Amino acid sequence: MALTDILERIKKETAEQTEKLKQEYDEKKKRLDEEDKKAQKEIDEDLHQKVEERSKKMLEKAENLADQERKNQLLFAKRKFIDKVLTSAIDELADSPDYEKILVDMLKKADLDDANTVVVPAKGKEDKTKKAIKESGKTFFLSEKSADIKGGFILKTDKVEIDNSFETIIGNQLRGDLEIDLNKLLFQ
To answer: Domain 95-187 carries which CATH code?
Structure first.
Protein backbone atom coordinates (compact mmCIF):
# COMPACT_ATOMS: atom_id res chain seq x y z
CA MET A 1 0.00 0.00 0.00
CA ALA A 2 1.33 3.25 -0.98
CA LEU A 3 1.49 6.34 1.12
CA THR A 4 -1.07 8.09 -1.08
CA ASP A 5 -3.47 5.20 -0.62
CA ILE A 6 -2.98 5.41 3.14
CA LEU A 7 -3.48 9.17 3.09
CA GLU A 8 -6.51 8.76 0.87
CA ARG A 9 -7.93 6.14 3.22
CA ILE A 10 -7.23 8.41 6.28
CA LYS A 11 -8.95 11.31 4.46
CA LYS A 12 -11.91 9.09 3.62
CA GLU A 13 -12.19 7.75 7.18
CA THR A 14 -11.77 11.28 8.56
CA ALA A 15 -14.51 12.54 6.21
CA GLU A 16 -16.78 9.66 7.22
CA GLN A 17 -16.05 10.28 10.93
CA THR A 18 -16.61 14.01 10.45
CA GLU A 19 -19.91 13.35 8.63
CA LYS A 20 -20.94 10.87 11.35
CA LEU A 21 -20.03 13.38 14.10
CA LYS A 22 -21.90 16.13 12.22
CA GLN A 23 -24.99 13.92 11.96
CA GLU A 24 -24.76 13.02 15.66
CA TYR A 25 -24.31 16.71 16.45
CA ASP A 26 -27.32 17.67 14.28
CA GLU A 27 -29.45 14.92 15.88
CA LYS A 28 -28.41 15.95 19.41
CA LYS A 29 -28.97 19.60 18.55
CA LYS A 30 -32.40 18.82 17.11
CA ARG A 31 -33.32 16.68 20.17
CA LEU A 32 -32.03 19.39 22.57
CA ASP A 33 -33.93 22.07 20.64
CA GLU A 34 -37.13 20.00 20.89
CA GLU A 35 -36.55 19.36 24.60
CA ASP A 36 -35.84 23.06 25.06
CA LYS A 37 -39.04 24.00 23.19
CA LYS A 38 -40.98 21.47 25.25
CA ALA A 39 -39.46 22.77 28.50
CA GLN A 40 -40.08 26.37 27.42
CA LYS A 41 -43.70 25.50 26.58
CA GLU A 42 -44.14 23.91 30.04
CA ILE A 43 -42.56 26.96 31.67
CA ASP A 44 -44.82 29.26 29.65
CA GLU A 45 -47.91 27.23 30.55
CA ASP A 46 -46.90 27.12 34.22
CA LEU A 47 -46.18 30.85 34.23
CA HIS A 48 -49.48 31.57 32.46
CA GLN A 49 -51.33 29.43 35.02
CA LYS A 50 -49.64 31.23 37.90
CA VAL A 51 -50.46 34.62 36.37
CA GLU A 52 -54.08 33.50 35.93
CA GLU A 53 -54.26 32.30 39.55
CA ARG A 54 -52.70 35.50 40.88
CA SER A 55 -54.97 37.63 38.74
CA LYS A 56 -57.98 35.70 39.98
CA LYS A 57 -56.85 36.06 43.61
CA MET A 58 -56.18 39.78 43.15
CA LEU A 59 -59.59 40.24 41.54
CA GLU A 60 -61.28 38.33 44.38
CA LYS A 61 -59.36 40.40 46.93
CA ALA A 62 -60.34 43.63 45.16
CA GLU A 63 -63.99 42.50 45.06
CA ASN A 64 -63.87 41.57 48.76
CA LEU A 65 -62.32 44.93 49.64
CA ALA A 66 -64.90 46.76 47.55
CA ASP A 67 -67.69 44.77 49.19
CA GLN A 68 -66.27 45.48 52.65
CA GLU A 69 -65.96 49.19 51.82
CA ARG A 70 -69.56 49.23 50.58
CA LYS A 71 -70.73 47.57 53.80
CA ASN A 72 -68.69 50.03 55.89
CA GLN A 73 -70.15 52.98 53.99
CA LEU A 74 -73.66 51.59 54.45
CA LEU A 75 -73.05 51.01 58.17
CA PHE A 76 -71.62 54.52 58.50
CA ALA A 77 -74.67 55.99 56.74
CA LYS A 78 -77.03 53.96 58.95
CA ARG A 79 -75.23 55.06 62.11
CA LYS A 80 -75.27 58.67 60.97
CA PHE A 81 -78.99 58.43 60.28
CA ILE A 82 -79.64 56.75 63.66
CA ASP A 83 -77.57 59.48 65.35
CA LYS A 84 -79.83 62.07 63.72
CA VAL A 85 -82.95 60.19 64.81
CA LEU A 86 -81.69 59.94 68.42
CA THR A 87 -80.64 63.61 68.44
CA SER A 88 -84.06 64.50 67.10
CA ALA A 89 -85.71 62.42 69.85
CA ILE A 90 -83.63 64.22 72.49
CA ASP A 91 -84.60 67.61 71.02
CA GLU A 92 -88.28 66.62 70.90
CA LEU A 93 -88.23 65.47 74.53
CA ALA A 94 -86.48 68.66 75.62
CA ASP A 95 -89.01 70.81 73.74
CA SER A 96 -92.02 68.65 74.62
CA PRO A 97 -95.08 70.36 76.11
CA ASP A 98 -94.98 67.48 78.65
CA TYR A 99 -91.40 68.29 79.69
CA GLU A 100 -92.37 68.98 83.33
CA LYS A 101 -94.40 65.76 83.53
CA ILE A 102 -91.43 63.80 82.15
CA LEU A 103 -89.18 65.34 84.82
CA VAL A 104 -91.73 64.62 87.56
CA ASP A 105 -91.79 60.92 86.55
CA MET A 106 -87.99 60.80 86.46
CA LEU A 107 -87.69 62.52 89.86
CA LYS A 108 -90.22 60.19 91.47
CA LYS A 109 -88.08 57.22 90.36
CA ALA A 110 -84.93 58.72 91.87
CA ASP A 111 -83.94 56.58 94.84
CA LEU A 112 -81.81 59.06 96.79
CA ASP A 113 -82.02 60.62 100.22
CA ASP A 114 -84.10 63.76 99.73
CA ALA A 115 -82.30 65.78 102.40
CA ASN A 116 -78.91 66.16 100.68
CA THR A 117 -79.84 65.76 97.02
CA VAL A 118 -79.24 68.66 94.67
CA VAL A 119 -80.84 68.79 91.23
CA VAL A 120 -78.77 70.47 88.53
CA PRO A 121 -81.23 71.54 85.80
CA ALA A 122 -80.70 71.83 82.07
CA LYS A 123 -79.62 75.29 80.98
CA GLY A 124 -82.73 77.39 80.24
CA LYS A 125 -85.07 74.92 81.95
CA GLU A 126 -84.53 75.99 85.55
CA ASP A 127 -88.13 77.09 86.21
CA LYS A 128 -89.67 73.92 84.74
CA THR A 129 -87.26 71.80 86.79
CA LYS A 130 -88.13 73.72 89.99
CA LYS A 131 -91.86 73.11 89.34
CA ALA A 132 -91.19 69.42 88.60
CA ILE A 133 -89.32 69.00 91.92
CA LYS A 134 -92.25 70.49 93.79
CA GLU A 135 -94.79 68.37 91.90
CA SER A 136 -92.78 65.16 92.44
CA GLY A 137 -93.15 65.48 96.20
CA LYS A 138 -89.39 65.22 96.70
CA THR A 139 -87.51 67.64 98.92
CA PHE A 140 -84.55 67.94 96.56
CA PHE A 141 -82.77 71.28 96.28
CA LEU A 142 -82.44 73.08 92.95
CA SER A 143 -78.84 73.99 92.15
CA GLU A 144 -77.99 77.60 91.44
CA LYS A 145 -75.91 76.44 88.50
CA SER A 146 -77.33 74.74 85.46
CA ALA A 147 -75.75 72.05 83.25
CA ASP A 148 -75.02 72.39 79.57
CA ILE A 149 -77.50 69.69 78.60
CA LYS A 150 -80.60 69.84 76.38
CA GLY A 151 -82.99 68.32 78.88
CA GLY A 152 -83.30 66.26 82.02
CA PHE A 153 -81.16 66.92 85.08
CA ILE A 154 -78.20 65.76 87.14
CA LEU A 155 -78.70 64.55 90.71
CA LYS A 156 -75.86 65.20 93.16
CA THR A 157 -75.20 64.13 96.71
CA ASP A 158 -72.01 64.19 98.74
CA LYS A 159 -71.18 60.69 97.53
CA VAL A 160 -72.94 60.24 94.19
CA GLU A 161 -73.66 62.03 90.94
CA ILE A 162 -76.33 60.60 88.64
CA ASP A 163 -76.60 61.96 85.11
CA ASN A 164 -80.26 61.89 84.12
CA SER A 165 -79.79 64.13 81.10
CA PHE A 166 -81.71 63.10 78.01
CA GLU A 167 -78.42 62.89 76.15
CA THR A 168 -77.05 60.32 78.59
CA ILE A 169 -80.25 58.32 78.94
CA ILE A 170 -80.97 58.10 75.21
CA GLY A 171 -77.46 58.49 73.84
CA ASN A 172 -75.67 56.09 76.19
CA GLN A 173 -77.93 53.99 78.38
CA LEU A 174 -80.65 53.17 75.84
CA ARG A 175 -78.67 53.54 72.63
CA GLY A 176 -77.89 49.84 72.13
CA ASP A 177 -81.52 48.75 72.38
CA LEU A 178 -82.75 51.76 70.43
CA GLU A 179 -80.20 51.12 67.67
CA ILE A 180 -81.38 47.54 67.27
CA ASP A 181 -85.03 48.60 67.19
CA LEU A 182 -84.35 51.47 64.77
CA ASN A 183 -82.32 49.19 62.50
CA LYS A 184 -85.20 46.73 62.34
CA LEU A 185 -87.75 49.47 61.84
CA LEU A 186 -85.84 51.56 59.31
CA PHE A 187 -83.60 49.19 57.36
CA GLN A 188 -85.39 45.86 57.03
So the answer is: 3.30.2320.30
Closest CA to 102 of 132, 126, 147: 132
Average pLDDT, the chain: 88
Q: Are 171 and 151 in contact (CB under 8 A)?
A: no
Rounded Cα distance, 2 and 7, in Å: 9
- Interval 108-131: pLDDT, tens: 988 877 678 999 999 999 999 999
What distance in Å separates the CA atoms of residue 11 and residue 35, rounded to the nearest whole number?
Answer: 35
**Sequence spans of domains, the chain:** 1-69, 95-187
In this structure, of 12-16, 43-47, 50-54, 140-144, the range with the lowest mean pLDDT score is 12-16
Q: What is each CA distance from 78 to 44, 81, 172, 186, 188, in whole angstroms?
A: 50, 5, 17, 9, 12
Distances 43 to 39, 62, 64, 85, 110 between C-alpha atoms, Å: 6, 28, 31, 62, 80
DSSP summary character for residue 97? T
Q: Which of 159, 153, 163 is nearest to 119 (CA)?
A: 153
Categorize the per-residue pLDDT at 149 as very low, low, confident or very high, splitting at 50, 70 and 90: very high
What pLDDT is stored for residue 188 in this prediction? 67
Question: Whose CA is closest to 125, among 147, 157, 158?
Answer: 147
Indicate the angle between helix axes 126-136 and 99-109, nearest 10 degrees: 50
